[in-house]
Amino acid sequence: MDLTVIGYWGAYPDKNEATSGYLLEHKGSKILLDCGSGVLSKLQNYTTLEELDAVVITHLHADHMADVYSLEFATLISMQLGRRLKPLEVYVYYKDSARLDFCYPQYVNVHQITPQSVVTVGELTLEFSENIHEVPCCAVKVISGEGKSLVYSGDTGYCQEIIDFSWGVDVLVLESSFYNWQKGLNHGHLTAGEAGQIAAIAQPGRLILTHLPHYDDHQQLVLEASVHYNGEIQLAYCGMKLTI
């Protein structure tokens, strides 16, 4: 199972980069986790849009789904031109369907996901857990047929659910929106220290800090997380590749 970080910024993309977007590939299957601002353009450096099997949207904040409607239109064009032979499967964590603006059901199959959902794409199995956030939001666990596992947190505050959900996974891609000095400013996001505390309990094989702020030294985030978690910690960056 291969992971490529398409975008990792919180709130808005930096110049020539993107907010949340993560491409997973396994034995020909391709899944995009979140499709934030700038992701659609950057994604095409690593795969054609026609090759995507599925997209998972963890919640309806723009930095996680701003490009998904453009992707819908790209799918329409690809199918009309015969470049794509089947609709794109889109899985969205939401509670109010009125907030969704998909227009072309013949080209995009939109599915509501819940904490009880289990999705299979090729030999990958996807499970979900609800987070603490300003709007309904989920974390995603991806398990390969060989038993390798990854959890992508989406956006979350500190909660027992994300700890339990992430326990023992090979890679934990965990948001780190704030520095420790900002603790308490937003209960729907994590400080780096809280991310380290989660990893210290869940004990993933590797911790990737993502959804990063646009200020100060990101190496400080690693230092603050490492106070609690003594495993490998890396900062996400556009184009980062991992084999799990």
Automatic annotation (TrEMBL):
**One Pfam family, short name please?**
Lactamase_B_2
Catalysis: reaction(s): 3',5'-cyclic UMP + H2O = UMP + H(+); 3',5'-cyclic CMP + H2O = CMP + H(+)
Domain of life, per the record?
Answer: Bacteria
Show where the Metallo-beta-lactamase domain sits.
Answer: 18-189
The record's keywords, sorted A to Z, are: Hydrolase, Zinc
Residue spans making up a coiled coil are none
Entry annotated with the keyword Zinc: yes
For molecular function, the Gene Ontology terms on record are: 3'-tRNA processing endoribonuclease activity
> What exactly does this protein do?
Counteracts the endogenous Pycsar antiviral defense system. Phosphodiesterase that enables metal-dependent hydrolysis of host cyclic nucleotide Pycsar defense signals such as cCMP and cUMP.
Q: What is this protein called?
A: MBL fold metallo-hydrolase
What species was this sequence derived from?
Answer: Paenibacillus lutimineralis
